[in-house]
Each structure stands twice: as C-alpha cells, then as structure tokens.
Amino acid sequence: MRNLLYIVVTTVILTACVGGGKERAVLDTAQRIINDRPDSALAMLDSLEPSSHDFSTENLRRWQLLRPYVLSF
Fold first, then answer.
1. Whole-prediction pTM value?
2. How many CB atoms lie within 10 A of CB 25?
C-alpha cells in the first residue's frame, strides 16, 4: 500500500513538471492526503516550490495556504 502511494505521488510530481496547469493536480492530491500522510503532502508541496513563481494567482495562494497547514502537524 505504501509503495502504491509513493508511485502515485511520484507520477503526479513528474506530471506536474510538464506544465500546463499540472500543479493544480499536485495541489489536489496533496490536499487529499494532508491529514493521513502529512509527510508525503509536504514533500509534494516542497517539490512545487522551485516553480512557484510561474503559478497562477489561484494556485500560488492555495500553495501558500496548504504549506503552513502541513507544517502545523
């Protein structure tokens, strides 16, 4: 089960690197797993940081809200 989670997370992250609004998919996945797997959610959110300057305003604000929430766990 854990391996499946890592495969899904890796796939989402690699897909996000392609661009075209894919960061929203990563944000959706991170938000879904944030309560059950905060460490995985944080890794996903941190992987988006280098490209955060290219985010739409909506995705940037969402990323800025989710990251401190994960760190509070």
1. 0.70
2. 14
For tokens 């944080």, name the residue: 42
Q: Which residues of 49-73 are buried (b: 16+ CB within 10 A; e: fewer)?
A: eeeeeebeeebeebbeebbebbeee
The tens digit of pLDDT for each residue in 7-58 reads: 777 777 776 655 547 889 999 999 999 999 999 999 999 999 999 898 889 9
6-14: list long-range contacts, CB under 8 Å, 24+ apart. Answer: 6/40, 9/40, 9/43, 9/44, 12/44, 13/44, 13/47
